[in-house]
Amino acid sequence: MIIKDGNQLFSQRSGAPKYIIRPYGKDRFFFDNSFVVIGFNRDASGKVIEAVTDDRGTKETWAKTGKPLPVRIEIKLHEPILTSYTGEYELAPGFILTVTREGDRLFTQATGQSKVEIFAESETKFFLKVVDAQLEFIKDDSGKVIKVILYQGGQKLEGPKIR
Fold first, then answer.
1. What are the C-alpha distances in Å from 143 to residues 57, 84, 138, 140?
2. I need a surface site. Which of 58, 100, 109, 128 has the fewest CB within 10 A?
3. Is 0.90 surpassed by the pTM of this model?
4. Distance CA 84, CA 137 (A)
5. 3-state DSSP call for residue 99?
6. What is the pLDDT at residue 14?
7. Mean pLDDT for each 10-residue chunk of the chain (163 residues)?
8. CA-to-CA distance for 150 and 25, rounded, in angstroms?
9. Contact 142, 150 (CB under 8 A)
10. In this structure, are residues 19 and 31 in contact, taking their beta carbons and an 8 Å threshold?
11. What is the predicted pLDDT for the residue at 15?
């Protein structure tokens, strides 16, 4: 989402902080301390219709929708529920998502990545604040957690609980 606050533009993904984008040309902006640039494309009437991000040659196109960012409300869960989600989930060969608990807080860490806190929005659905990603824990008929589903970047990755 692109937000205007006063004379400054910001980019913000759902659940993530706002980042200043600075102009360097007509409809062209860059992020501080990053190689990512963003450009806005217009239709024949001059109306902005999409944004294109470019991270050193890797481009993504984002259609303008006008939809607001979803508001995620975090709830507190009892520690035994949180404990049931701890363990390791294999999202792909060699790519493990480890879920740990520290008191009444739940954390996740993917192979080769930093540990981040996840926040409950229901008993089985969690979201991250550092990136736009959600986790959904799936239970069998007996209530045992058997897998997790990671929703991120339009993808849905399922991982069985392996430990």
1. 46, 9, 9, 5
2. 58
3. no
4. 10
5. strand
6. 62
7. 86 76 95 91 95 90 80 92 97 96 96 94 93 92 97 88 96
8. 37
9. no
10. yes
11. 58
Tokens of 119: 């926040």
Architecture of domain 79-160 in this structure: Beta Barrel (2.40)
Rounded Cα distance, 62 and 60, in Å: 7
Q: Where are the domains of the chain?
A: 2-63, 79-160
Phi, psi (degrees; rounded to nearest 5) at 59: -110, 140
Cα 158 from Cα 116, distance rounded (Å): 19
The amino acid that residue 76 corresponds to is K
Using CA atoms, how far apart are residues 33 and 111, in angstroms rounded to an integer? 25
Length of the chain measured in residues:
163
- Which tokens is 96 given? 């493990």
Rounded distance between C-alpha atoms, residue 73 and residue 55, angstroms = 31
